[in-house]
Amino acid sequence: MSQNEVLNAITYRRSIFQANYNEQEISKENLLTILEAANAAPTHKRTQPWRFVIFRNDGLVRLGNELGRIYKEVTPAEKYTELNEQNMVKKATMSKAAMAIIVNYTGELPEWEELAATACAVQNMWLAAYSLKIGAYWATPGLINHLGSFLGLAENQKCIGLFYLGHHSSEDREPVRSPIAEKIRWEE
Ligand SMILES: Cc1cc2nc3c(=O)[nH]c(=O)nc-3n(C[C@H](O)[C@H](O)[C@H](O)COP(=O)(O)O)c2cc1C
Question: Which residues, other chains included, contact 29 with Cβ-Cβ below 8 Å and sequence gap of 6+?
């Protein structure tokens, strides 16, 4: 890909996980920049279906405790381990911020269009985070299907993941992908 700043961000945006996050706080200003990028995503009929609950500081502890509680509640006894429960809590507490990604279904469009628009918003956030040297990734554990009351979701809303964030000092990495040539067909 020939590179300018946008193409560079698209190429080098990576999933960056908690183990790589450092102690640096993410400023509210940077989080708002990332959220404004989400809000600029394309949206059919301008339904703007993306919603976010942002967790910082004690909010991350509450999120972690809730994820641990849900894990314990929904995991069959033979599969439950205390280590997994602690790891679920740590996903939140080792992050510097987390955002619950929520789709607000309006009924004005097929649901997949609202879902697609929200995914576009997430990619915008991911690219904005990269541009601010903030690492992030989209996590979709099955537990997100049990977060409704904790997040205060309405009937028409669904949590489709958690976006975890933290500053880091990992080197840029190329994407690992099979060639685009295998996924396209030209009609000329
Ligand atoms: C819809 C969606 C859900 C994802 N869910 C998870 C997840 O639950 N856990 C995880 O570690 N990564 C998750 N990822 C991140 C992918 O694993 C990651 O994007 C992929 O490995 C490619 O790496 P890259 O983002 O660094 O290019 C998800 C990504 C997407 C788009």
Answer: none
| CATH code at position 134 | 3.40.109.10
Say whether 161 sits in a helix, a strand or coil.
Answer: strand
Range of the domain at 122: 8-167
Single-letter amino acid, residue 138 = W
Q: How far is the CA of 16 from the centre of ligand 1 (A)?
A: 10
Q: Whose C-alpha lies nearest to ligand 1, atom 26?
A: 14
Using most ligand atoms within 8 A of CB, pick from 21, 138, 171 the residue to mutate for ligand 1: 138
- Specify the pTM: 0.97
Instruction: Specify the pLDDT at position 21.
Output: 98
Closest residue by Cα to atom 30, ligand 1, is 138
- List the structure tokens of 100: 């619950």
* Confidence band for 3, pLDDT divided at 50, 70 and 90: confident
